[in-house]
Specification:
By secondary structure, the chain is of the alpha/beta class. It has seven helices and nine strands; from the N terminus they run βαβαβαβαβαββαβαβ.
Length: 244
């Protein structure tokens, strides 16, 4: 039976790199994102390489959007999602005093609420079948304080705790829940940071930003049977920043 994976934020960056790698492994990839043009590009690329993929547009700014995406994914996949990768996220930086209520709500909605309700919709089915894998994408700034990153970091810190809670809740039923914690990573979304990204990465042993592909390889590991004995882990993919 073909494995099916739903990947949010899969039209660019880490999500796209993950979709391409899973597609190359024969996984039926459900590419989710807001931009239909970019989504179609990812899908066509996976299909051209011999894989199977479909695009599912989604707006994950509220619980209803997450629940709707889960329902459509199950429909396309014939009622079975084997892997969920919560890669969609936003990362606004800036002073606490400049944060608007609307901006706060959007970050929490996309970074916390969407993964929560996707897991709520899909993990029980995995548990009923006795197998499945969920991988959440967090961030190294969920682990330490950094000026201007309180909102983003705290939203991802919530996802770290949820990863462990879901591992405790669904692990006994055969569902593995883990996370990757990227450090500075060069993607379309971080391109605007320019030299600031390099400066942020300079503090780690690797001394450079990572690539979307390097983070995706860690996600693929956690999503597949190679990590069959890994539950509730947060895997740093941060160029060694955790070590300093």
């Amino acid at each position: 039976m073909t494995t099916t994976a739903l990947i949010t934020g899969a039209t660019s960056g880490i999500g796209r790199a993950t979709a391409e790698r899973l597609g190359a492994r024969g996984v039926h990839v459900l590419v989710s994102g807001r931009d239909a043009g970019r989504g179609d590009e990812v899908v066509q690329g996976i299909r051209a390489a011999g894989g199977t993929a479909d695009f599912l547009p989604a707006d994950l700014r509220d619980a209803a959007g997450a629940q709707d995406l889960a329902a459509r994914a199950l429909e396309v996949a014939g009622g079975r999602i084997d892997v969920l990768v919560n890669s969609a996220g936003i990362f606004p930086f800036g002073p606490t005093a400049d944060t608007t209520a609307e901006g706060f709500d959007e970050v929490v909605a996309i970074n916390v609420k969407a993964p929560y309700f996707l897991v709520a919709a899909l993990a029980p089915g995995m548990a009923e079948r006795g197998e499945g894998a969920i991988v959440n994408v967090t961030t190294m700034v969920a682990e330490f304080g950094a000026a201007g990153m309180g909102l983003y970091g705290s939203s991802k810190a919530a996802l770290v705790l949820l990863t462990k809670s879901w591992a405790a809740e669904f692990g006994p039923s055969g569902v593995r829940v883990n996370a990757v914690s990227p450090g500075p990573t060069r993607t379309e979304g971080t391109a605007a940071m320019g030299e600031a990204l390099d400066q942020l990465a300079a503090g780690g042993p690797a001394g450079r930003p990572g690539t979307a592909g390097e983070v995706a390889e860690a996600i693929v590991f956690l999503a597949t049977d190679a990590a069959s004995f890994v539950h509730g882990a947060v895997l740093p993919v941060d160029g060694g920043r955790i070590a300093v």
